[in-house]
Amino acid sequence: MKISMEGRRVVVAGGSRGIGLAIAKAFADAGASVAICARGESGLRDAERELQGRGGAVHAAVCDLADRAAVAHYVGEAARVLGGIEVLVNNASGFGRTDDETGWAASIDIDLMATVRASQAALPHLQRGASIIHISSISGLQPSVRTPPYGAIKAALIQYTTTQALALAPRGVRVNCIAPGSIEFPGGVWDEARKNNPTLYQGIVQSIPSARMGRPEEVASVALFLASDMASWVTGQTIAVDGGQMLS
Fold first, then answer.
1. Cα dihedral 156, 159, 161, 165 in deg (nearest 10)
2. More confident residue, 2 or 133
3. pTM beyond 0.85
4. Active-site residue, selected from the candidate residues 16, 33, 119, 137
5. Catalytic site residue 136?
6. Of these residues, 136, 139, 144, 228, which one is catalytic?
7. Where are the chain's structural domains?
Protein backbone atom coordinates (compact mmCIF):
# COMPACT_ATOMS: atom_id res chain seq x y z
CA MET A 1 0.00 0.00 0.00
CA LYS A 2 1.59 3.25 -1.12
CA ILE A 3 0.24 6.55 0.21
CA SER A 4 0.79 9.63 -1.93
CA MET A 5 1.14 13.08 -0.40
CA GLU A 6 2.09 14.71 -3.67
CA GLY A 7 1.43 18.44 -3.53
CA ARG A 8 0.65 18.48 0.21
CA ARG A 9 2.36 20.92 2.59
CA VAL A 10 3.31 19.47 5.97
CA VAL A 11 4.53 21.38 9.03
CA VAL A 12 6.24 19.40 11.79
CA ALA A 13 6.79 21.15 15.11
CA GLY A 14 9.91 19.46 16.42
CA GLY A 15 11.41 17.49 13.56
CA SER A 16 15.19 17.32 13.72
CA ARG A 17 15.54 13.80 15.16
CA GLY A 18 13.72 10.74 16.40
CA ILE A 19 9.98 10.49 15.81
CA GLY A 20 9.69 14.00 14.36
CA LEU A 21 12.38 13.45 11.75
CA ALA A 22 10.97 10.03 10.85
CA ILE A 23 7.56 11.64 10.30
CA ALA A 24 9.07 14.39 8.16
CA LYS A 25 10.93 11.80 6.08
CA ALA A 26 7.79 9.69 5.62
CA PHE A 27 5.84 12.66 4.29
CA ALA A 28 8.72 13.81 2.08
CA ASP A 29 9.12 10.29 0.66
CA ALA A 30 5.39 10.35 -0.12
CA GLY A 31 5.91 13.51 -2.19
CA ALA A 32 5.02 16.27 0.30
CA SER A 33 6.77 19.56 0.92
CA VAL A 34 7.88 19.62 4.54
CA ALA A 35 8.80 22.20 7.17
CA ILE A 36 10.64 21.25 10.37
CA CYS A 37 11.99 23.18 13.32
CA ALA A 38 14.29 22.62 16.29
CA ARG A 39 16.14 24.64 18.90
CA GLY A 40 19.60 23.43 17.85
CA GLU A 41 21.03 24.75 14.59
CA SER A 42 23.46 21.87 13.99
CA GLY A 43 20.94 19.05 14.32
CA LEU A 44 18.40 21.01 12.34
CA ARG A 45 20.74 21.43 9.38
CA ASP A 46 21.64 17.73 9.45
CA ALA A 47 17.93 16.90 9.31
CA GLU A 48 17.37 19.41 6.51
CA ARG A 49 20.03 17.68 4.43
CA GLU A 50 18.39 14.31 5.03
CA LEU A 51 15.07 15.66 3.75
CA GLN A 52 16.34 17.42 0.65
CA GLY A 53 15.70 15.60 -2.60
CA ARG A 54 13.14 13.21 -1.13
CA GLY A 55 9.92 14.99 -2.07
CA GLY A 56 8.89 18.60 -2.51
CA ALA A 57 10.31 21.75 -0.94
CA VAL A 58 12.03 21.68 2.45
CA HIS A 59 11.90 24.46 5.03
CA ALA A 60 13.94 24.26 8.23
CA ALA A 61 13.97 26.95 10.91
CA VAL A 62 15.42 27.36 14.37
CA CYS A 63 12.57 27.74 16.86
CA ASP A 64 12.22 27.49 20.62
CA LEU A 65 8.79 25.91 20.91
CA ALA A 66 8.48 27.09 24.50
CA ASP A 67 8.40 30.67 23.17
CA ARG A 68 4.89 31.78 22.15
CA ALA A 69 6.03 34.37 19.61
CA ALA A 70 8.58 31.98 18.11
CA VAL A 71 5.93 29.29 17.54
CA ALA A 72 3.61 31.71 15.75
CA HIS A 73 6.47 33.02 13.62
CA TYR A 74 7.64 29.52 12.67
CA VAL A 75 4.21 28.30 11.60
CA GLY A 76 3.46 31.49 9.67
CA GLU A 77 6.82 31.44 7.91
CA ALA A 78 6.46 27.76 7.07
CA ALA A 79 3.05 28.43 5.53
CA ARG A 80 4.52 31.28 3.49
CA VAL A 81 7.51 29.28 2.23
CA LEU A 82 5.53 26.14 1.44
CA GLY A 83 2.55 28.02 0.06
CA GLY A 84 0.05 26.74 2.63
CA ILE A 85 -0.50 23.97 5.16
CA GLU A 86 -2.46 20.76 4.73
CA VAL A 87 -0.97 18.86 7.67
CA LEU A 88 0.29 20.02 11.07
CA VAL A 89 2.16 17.54 13.27
CA ASN A 90 2.79 18.57 16.88
CA ASN A 91 5.65 16.37 18.01
CA ALA A 92 7.91 18.34 20.38
CA SER A 93 8.28 17.30 24.00
CA GLY A 94 10.02 18.86 26.98
CA PHE A 95 9.79 15.45 28.69
CA GLY A 96 9.12 16.72 32.19
CA ARG A 97 10.27 13.88 34.43
CA THR A 98 10.42 15.33 37.93
CA ASP A 99 7.41 16.13 40.09
CA ASP A 100 8.52 19.68 40.76
CA GLU A 101 8.17 23.13 39.21
CA THR A 102 10.90 22.43 36.65
CA GLY A 103 9.39 19.16 35.46
CA TRP A 104 5.87 20.53 35.22
CA ALA A 105 6.99 23.71 33.44
CA ALA A 106 8.88 21.70 30.81
CA SER A 107 5.87 19.59 29.93
CA ILE A 108 3.34 22.40 30.10
CA ASP A 109 5.38 24.87 28.05
CA ILE A 110 6.38 22.50 25.25
CA ASP A 111 4.16 19.39 25.19
CA LEU A 112 0.96 21.31 25.84
CA MET A 113 1.24 25.01 25.08
CA ALA A 114 3.44 24.64 22.00
CA THR A 115 0.79 22.29 20.63
CA VAL A 116 -2.01 24.73 21.39
CA ARG A 117 -0.11 27.68 19.94
CA ALA A 118 1.01 25.88 16.78
CA SER A 119 -2.56 24.72 16.19
CA GLN A 120 -3.90 28.24 16.61
CA ALA A 121 -1.24 29.67 14.29
CA ALA A 122 -1.98 27.03 11.65
CA LEU A 123 -5.77 27.34 11.70
CA PRO A 124 -6.01 30.31 9.29
CA HIS A 125 -4.12 28.21 6.72
CA LEU A 126 -6.06 24.95 7.14
CA GLN A 127 -8.71 24.34 4.52
CA ARG A 128 -11.28 21.55 4.24
CA GLY A 129 -9.47 18.23 4.07
CA ALA A 130 -6.58 19.36 6.27
CA SER A 131 -5.36 17.35 9.23
CA ILE A 132 -3.75 17.94 12.62
CA ILE A 133 -1.84 15.16 14.39
CA HIS A 134 -0.65 15.37 17.99
CA ILE A 135 2.04 13.06 19.34
CA SER A 136 1.12 12.01 22.86
CA SER A 137 2.31 8.85 24.66
CA ILE A 138 0.94 5.72 26.28
CA SER A 139 2.04 7.47 29.49
CA GLY A 140 -1.06 9.61 28.98
CA LEU A 141 -3.28 6.52 29.00
CA GLN A 142 -2.07 4.96 32.25
CA PRO A 143 -0.35 5.92 35.51
CA SER A 144 3.13 7.39 35.05
CA VAL A 145 4.89 7.12 38.40
CA ARG A 146 8.40 7.75 37.04
CA THR A 147 7.36 10.87 35.12
CA PRO A 148 4.21 12.47 36.59
CA PRO A 149 4.27 15.75 34.58
CA TYR A 150 4.94 13.96 31.31
CA GLY A 151 2.05 11.51 31.80
CA ALA A 152 -0.43 14.13 32.94
CA ILE A 153 0.29 16.55 30.11
CA LYS A 154 0.25 13.78 27.50
CA ALA A 155 -3.20 12.87 28.86
CA ALA A 156 -4.22 16.50 28.40
CA LEU A 157 -3.18 16.25 24.74
CA ILE A 158 -5.43 13.24 24.28
CA GLN A 159 -8.37 15.17 25.70
CA TYR A 160 -7.48 18.24 23.63
CA THR A 161 -7.52 16.04 20.53
CA THR A 162 -11.18 15.13 21.09
CA THR A 163 -12.18 18.73 21.80
CA GLN A 164 -10.35 20.05 18.73
CA ALA A 165 -11.77 17.32 16.53
CA LEU A 166 -15.31 18.22 17.52
CA ALA A 167 -14.72 21.96 17.12
CA LEU A 168 -13.04 21.67 13.72
CA ALA A 169 -15.22 18.97 12.14
CA PRO A 170 -17.62 21.55 10.60
CA ARG A 171 -14.61 23.06 8.82
CA GLY A 172 -13.60 19.68 7.43
CA VAL A 173 -10.37 19.59 9.45
CA ARG A 174 -9.59 16.28 11.12
CA VAL A 175 -7.63 16.00 14.39
CA ASN A 176 -6.07 12.78 15.65
CA CYS A 177 -3.45 11.68 18.14
CA ILE A 178 -0.75 9.02 18.28
CA ALA A 179 0.36 7.54 21.60
CA PRO A 180 3.73 5.85 21.08
CA GLY A 181 5.11 3.35 23.52
CA SER A 182 8.83 3.10 24.21
CA ILE A 183 10.60 4.23 21.03
CA GLU A 184 14.37 4.00 20.73
CA PHE A 185 16.56 6.18 18.50
CA PRO A 186 20.10 7.59 18.71
CA GLY A 187 20.34 10.23 21.42
CA GLY A 188 16.83 9.54 22.69
CA VAL A 189 15.66 8.65 26.20
CA TRP A 190 15.85 4.90 25.67
CA ASP A 191 19.18 5.04 23.87
CA GLU A 192 20.54 6.86 26.92
CA ALA A 193 18.89 4.35 29.27
CA ARG A 194 20.43 1.44 27.38
CA LYS A 195 23.86 2.95 27.93
CA ASN A 196 23.45 4.39 31.43
CA ASN A 197 20.60 2.50 33.10
CA PRO A 198 20.58 -1.02 31.63
CA THR A 199 18.40 -2.36 34.46
CA LEU A 200 15.59 0.03 33.58
CA TYR A 201 16.11 -0.53 29.85
CA GLN A 202 15.95 -4.33 30.09
CA GLY A 203 12.98 -4.14 32.43
CA ILE A 204 11.02 -2.10 29.89
CA VAL A 205 12.00 -4.38 26.99
CA GLN A 206 10.90 -7.44 28.97
CA SER A 207 7.55 -5.77 29.69
CA ILE A 208 6.77 -5.35 25.99
CA PRO A 209 5.04 -8.40 24.45
CA SER A 210 6.87 -7.78 21.18
CA ALA A 211 10.16 -8.04 23.16
CA ARG A 212 11.77 -4.97 21.65
CA MET A 213 11.64 -1.19 21.62
CA GLY A 214 9.71 0.51 18.84
CA ARG A 215 11.24 2.43 15.96
CA PRO A 216 10.42 6.02 14.96
CA GLU A 217 9.47 4.84 11.48
CA GLU A 218 6.67 2.73 12.97
CA VAL A 219 5.11 5.86 14.44
CA ALA A 220 5.68 7.77 11.19
CA SER A 221 3.72 5.20 9.19
CA VAL A 222 0.67 5.76 11.37
CA ALA A 223 1.02 9.54 11.06
CA LEU A 224 1.15 9.22 7.28
CA PHE A 225 -2.01 7.12 7.28
CA LEU A 226 -3.91 9.48 9.59
CA ALA A 227 -3.10 12.49 7.40
CA SER A 228 -3.99 10.69 4.18
CA ASP A 229 -7.31 10.41 2.37
CA MET A 230 -7.42 6.78 3.49
CA ALA A 231 -8.28 8.09 6.97
CA SER A 232 -10.85 10.61 5.73
CA TRP A 233 -13.48 9.35 8.21
CA VAL A 234 -11.13 9.17 11.21
CA THR A 235 -11.10 12.07 13.65
CA GLY A 236 -10.85 12.56 17.40
CA GLN A 237 -8.99 9.28 17.85
CA THR A 238 -5.86 8.31 19.76
CA ILE A 239 -3.96 5.36 18.34
CA ALA A 240 -1.43 3.55 20.52
CA VAL A 241 1.70 2.45 18.66
CA ASP A 242 3.35 0.34 21.35
CA GLY A 243 3.83 -3.28 20.28
CA GLY A 244 1.29 -4.30 22.91
CA GLN A 245 3.16 -2.58 25.73
CA MET A 246 -0.04 -1.49 27.48
CA LEU A 247 -1.40 -5.04 27.37
CA SER A 248 1.17 -6.41 29.78
1. -150
2. 133
3. yes
4. 137
5. yes
6. 136
7. 9-184+214-247
